[in-house]
Design goal:
2 domains; 8-stranded mixed β-sheet; cytoplasm; 15 helices; 49% helix; 336 residues; two-stranded antiparallel sheet
C-alpha cells in the first residue's frame, strides 16, 4: 500500500491505557482523523461526553472534533488507513479476536507494544504478519525513550519509527511529529522491537536492585552490562549493522531503567522490597510488560544460548521464586 498524500489519513488507535491516550494526544496535533477503540463502553461514553480518559492521563484533553470513540473494533477499523496497536502484549490477542484478515487489508499496521506474544514467544510484528496476512512492508514499530506521562505534559520527546519499508516508516513519522515531539524513520524493525522488549526486563532488574538499597554506582554498572547483554542477544537473533547507542536502543533503555514513570522499574522495586508478584501487580494496577517478556526471552534463549546473567536473575526471581537478595548477590560477581 502506498501512502495516500491527497487526503487526511484515518488512524485507528486500539487500546485505552496511558500510552494509547498519549498517542491520541500526539495525533490530535496533526491533520489526521482518529478513531479510538476502548474495551469498556462506559469509557467510550465518558470520553464522548467529557473529552478525557477517566482512567489514564485524565488531565489530557481530547479534541472531540478529531477523535471518534468506539467499543466495537471492526467498526473502528472501517476505512482506516493506519491502525496503531497499543494494548499490552498479554492482551492483544483477546482484543483482536473479532478482527478478520480482510479488516486489515490494505492498511498500515503500527505496533506501539513493547512486548512479545506470551506462550508463542514471537514479536508483535511477526504475529500480525502471520495471523492477519499483512505484508511485512506494511508493518511499523513505534520505539524510543518516550513516557506517556511526559507526552501528557508536552515535554520534548523523540520517537523512532521502524519498518522494512523505510519510506512507509518516514511517512508515518511525519504523522507522529508535532511541536513537542520529533520522530524519524529507520529500517531495523527487529532490532528495535527486541531492544524494546529487553529494556523492560533490564528495568525490572534495576528496580529490584533499588528495592534492595543498591545505589547509583551499582545501577550504572548494571545498565552498562545490560547494554552488552542486549547486544549479544539481538545480534544472535538478527545479525546486522546497527548502532545500539542510538536513542531507539540506548535512549529507551536509559529512560526505562531510571525514570520515575517506568512501570517496570516500579514493579521491580516492589519485588526487591519484598512484595510478591501478585501483590505488586494488584497494587500497581498497571501492566509491567517485562514480567511477561522475561518468560518469553528465557524460552527463546534456550535456542541461542546467549550469555544473559541479568535476564537469568530476573527470570529466577519472578518465575522460580528465588530470593532477590541472593540473585543480585550472585549477579554482582559477574558484572564488570
Amino acid at each position: 500500500m502506498k501512502p495516500d498524500t491527497h487526503s487526511s489519513p484515518i488512524i485507528t488507535v486500539i487500546g485505552g491505557g496511558s500510552w494509547a491516550t498519549a498517542i491520541v494526544k500526539i495525533l490530535c496535533e496533526n491533520d489526521v482523523h482518529i478513531r479510538w477503540w476502548l474495551r469498556n463502553i462506559e469509557d467510550v461514553e465518558y470520553i464522548r461526553k467529557f473529552g478525557h480518559n477517566p482512567n489514564y492521563l485524565s488531565d489530557v484533553q481530547i479534541n472531540r472534533r478529531k477523535v471518534r470513540t468506539f467499543y466495537q473494533l471492526p467498526k473502528a477499523l472501517e476505512d482506516a488507513t493506519h491502525v496503531i496497536l497499543a494494548v499490552p502484549a498479554a492482551f492483544i490477542q483477546d482484543a483482536m479476536k473479532d478482527v478478520r484478515p480482510e479488516d486489515l487489508q490494505g492498511k498500515v499496521i503500527i505496533s506501539a507494544i513493547k512486548g512479545l506474544i506470551p506462550n508463542e514467544n514471537i514479536l508483535i510484528t511477526d504475529w500480525v504478519e502471520s495471523a492477519f496476512s499483512v505484508p511485512k512492508g506494511q508493518i511499523c514499530v513505534i520505539a524510543g525513550p518516550c513516557h506517556a506521562e511526559e507526552v501528557a505534559l508536552e515535554k520534548q520527546s523523540y520517537l523512532t519509527i521502524a519498518s522494512t519499508d523505510v519510506l512507509q516508516a518516514a511517512h508515518f513519522a511525519k504523522m507522529m511529529s508535532c511541536r513537542f515531539l520529533q520522530a524519524h524513520a529507520i529500517k531495523d524493525i527487529y532490532g528495535v522491537e527486541y531492544c524494546a522488549v529487553m529494556k523492560n526486563v533490564i528495568a525490572l532488574a534495576c528496580g529490584i536492585a533499588h528495592g534492595l538499597n543498591y545505589g547509583d554506582n551499582f545501577q550504572a554498572v548494571l545498565v552498562s552490562n545490560s547494554m552488552q547483554e542486549i547486544q549479544r542477544f539481538v545480534d544472535a537473533i538478527n545479525p546486522m549493522q546497527r548502532d545500539l547507542m542510538a536513542s531507539a536502543y540506548l535512549g529507551d533503555l536509559l529512560v526505562t531503567a531510571y525514570s520515575q514513570f517506568s512501570r517496570n522499574r516500579t514493579f521491580g522495586n516492589m519485588i526487591g522490597r519484598g512484595y510478591s508478584v501478585k501483590s505488586a501487580q494488584v497494587e500497581m494496577n498497571m501492566i509491567a510488560e517485562g514480567y511477561y517478556a522475561i518468560k518469553s526471552i528465557f524460552a527463546i534463549n534456550k535456542q541461542y544460548q546467549v550469555n544473559m546473567p541479568i535476564s537469568k536473575a530476573v527470570y529466577r526471581i519472578l518465575y522460580e521464586k528465588a530470593s532477590p537478595a541472593s540473585e543480585i548477590q550472585k549477579l554482582k560477581a559477574q558484572l564488570r
